[in-house]
Design brief:
Strand content: 25-35%
């Protein structure tokens, strides 16, 4: 019997297995781990040696992982593994290991837990991977804010979607997990052809490898394949990305019609695709590692670029997808459910839950920050700002909250207020914190390159193999160019950024300013020309090129560029004056 979700959008196939587990089948829980959606990221709060640490729940990580900067921040000793490398999107990085005396997860202590050390920072403490999630069975219930480590006994022939009731469920066979295979891998169908997929909560979206896309007749350059830019992951590199629409994806009998799928030029060891968190936050999934299968129910919500509006079977009868789980009983529960709503774009429902969380725990800054950010997304600027203000009153040393408010103040043209928050965040953040990259960029935006440079220094020192190094090199190049100091170092930074990201317009623009400051007008013009070829309506590049043209004696071209820049952004001349540049006076 087949069922259609949204009539034409999504079809759920009902697998012919018993509706209830057999009498001999027994399920037990080891631990319920609360999960909060932070944007598209499922986040778990744990403790490393007694200190709070927020991890991305990453079923696609073979091992729990932290960056070298995080290990440094938490005082963990890093041990080399020789020539071992960690592979992922964007290349590979060196691989080391560290051991925490204790990881406490949902109140349960795990002594002497090892972490792989390497790769890009994530903005969180690290990734919670399969050395923990694969210890037993795992139930991914992100729609309700939990992942559960489970155990089954006598369930070889039983069905383990114990929550499903009359709701249809599907079953996907998965590869056995062992010493050399630490991923949840199942076979799915795309347009009727078999594809081996890694089910990966750490992937922001589902993504097909370029080789697999070509096998399916969706090579870049085809009429129905759109360029989307780049994908980032492990290591310092980026890879090209596209998206396309297929006729169907069949996941164990769940047939999704006309899905959008991202494609990236990367390789997966033995697999073709990542099924990302967009799938997990709209499904409840039991991973039976003992018997090598997954049980899946669709819980409603958007996936693969679609937003199904309900469910009907092949006769047109509507399926009941109403969430029958009990209402949360505490602030943390409302916070988690609100995070899922917000992640799925349901801001009104999210705000209703965040209201309840704040009412139940009015002195918890984190709930105010959640509600404040949701209000800002919902264009409730005054209410959002009030929540962030209250959160900072409660937790003045919260560097992340300070950065959120600084961004808000910059957007409302309050640079003095923004600088006050940036300096407070600067004092509160750990020296190796990943947030220093954002902090440095915001110092630049607040016209304070003097404080931007040391923050870029600290970030680059602590993040030697991160995918954002090009961004940091470019930011430090720009800051030094604004200061008109250490122009040789600025040029070196821009060249390093361009080596990582060749031809990127904003890096070319930064290097052009270095050349302009140094009087190398031909080189400045060459870079401005190249940048404007990519971004022809960039008001700053046009205005700065007009300065180089005027200094070179090409007054007609200078006047034309200056007029074009002011037509795009009437305030661009004020910006140039702040930087000590004014084309009308050259």
């Amino acid at each position: 019997m087949a069922h259609r979700i949204g009539a034409w959008w999504l079809i759920l196939g009902l697998i012919a297995v018993p509706n209830r587990a057999s009498a001999a089948c027994k399920l037990s829980r080891y631990v319920d781990i609360p999960v909060t959606m932070a944007g598209p990221r499922p986040v778990v709060t744990a403790q490393i040696n007694g200190r709070d640490a927020r991890f991305i729940l990453d079923s696609g990580a073979f091992f729990s992982t932290i960056s070298a900067a995080t290990a440094q921040e938490y005082g963990l000793k890093i041990e080399s593994l020789g020539n071992a490398r960690l592979q992922g999107i964007g290349g590979d990085t060196s691989l080391s290991v560290t051991t925490a005396k204790e990881l406490r997860l949902a109140g349960v202590p795990i002594p002497k837990i090892e972490f792989a050390v390497g790769g890009s920072d994530t903005g969180f403490a690290g990734l919670l991977g399969q050395n923990i999630l694969g210890l037993a069975d795992a139930e991914y219930d992100l729609p309700h804010g939990f992942v559960r480590l489970m155990k089954n006994e006598g369930c070889r022939n039983g069905q383990l979607a114990y929550w499903a009731g009359a709701k249809p469920f599907t079953v996907v066979p998965i590869l056995p997990m062992g010493q050399g295979q630490r991923h949840t891998i199942g076979t799915i169908l795309i347009d009727g052809k078999k594809i081996k997929a890694v089910f990966d909560t750490g992937a922001v979206g589902s993504m097909l490898t370029l080789d697999a896309a070509k096998r399916l007749g969706k090579a870049p350059g085809s009429a129905d394949v759109e360029t989307t830019g780049f994908a980032y992951g492990l290591g310092t590199k980026r890879v090209r990305a596209w998206r396309t629409r297929f006729a169907t994806i069949d996941i164990g009998g769940e047939l999704i019609s006309k899905p959008w799928v991202k494609i990236a030029d990367y390789a997966l060891d033995g697999s073709d695709m990542l099924i990302g968190v967009d799938f997990f936050r709209t499904h409840r999934i039991y991973v039976d590692n003992q018997n090598h299968r997954m049980f899946i129910t669709y819980e409603g919500g958007p996936l693969f670029g679609l937003d199904p509006k309900g469910a009907v079977d092949e006769t047109g009868a509507r399926l009941d997808l109403t969430d029958k789980s009990s209402e949360p009983t505490d602030a943390a529960g409302y916070s988690r459910r609100g995070g899922v709503f917000a992640s799925n774009g349901k801001l009104e429902e999210a705000l209703a839950d965040f209201d309840k969380a704040v009412t139940m725990a009015p002195d918890e800054a984190r709930y105010l920050i959640q509600r404040g950010e949701a209000r800002l997304r919902n264009r409730q600027l005054l209410l959002g700002a009030a929540d962030i203000d209250k959160a900072i009153q409660l937790a003045p040393q919260d560097g992340d909250a300070r950065i959120v408010r600084a961004q808000l103040r910059l957007s409302t043209r309050d640079p003095a207020g923004a600088l006050s928050d940036l300096k407070a965040a600067d004092a509160a953040l750990a020296q190796s914190s990943d947030a220093r990259l954002r902090l440095a960029s915001m110092y630049n935006s607040a016209d304070d390159p003097t404080n931007a440079v040391p923050n870029y220094d600290k970030w680059l020192q602590a993040h030697r193999e991160d995918s954002n190094r090009a961004t940091a090199f470019n930011g430090r190049c720009w800051a030094r160019a604004l200061l008109n100091q250490e122009l040789d170092k600025a040029l070196s930074d821009c060249n390093a950024a361009l080596k990582l990201h060749p031809g990127e317009a904003n890096i070319l623009d930064s290097r052009a300013l270095v050349y302009l400051r140094g009087g190398a007008l031909d080189k400045a013009l060459s870079d401005y020309n190249a940048a404007l070829k990519v971004q022809p309506r960039n008001a700053w590049s046009l205005y700065a090129r007009s300065i180089a043209e005027r200094r070179s004696g090409n007054i007609a071209a200078a006047n034309a560029d200056r007029a074009a820049a002011i037509a795009i952004n009437p305030r661009i001349a004020e910006r140039a004056k702040r930087y000590g540049l004014d084309s009308s006076m050259q």
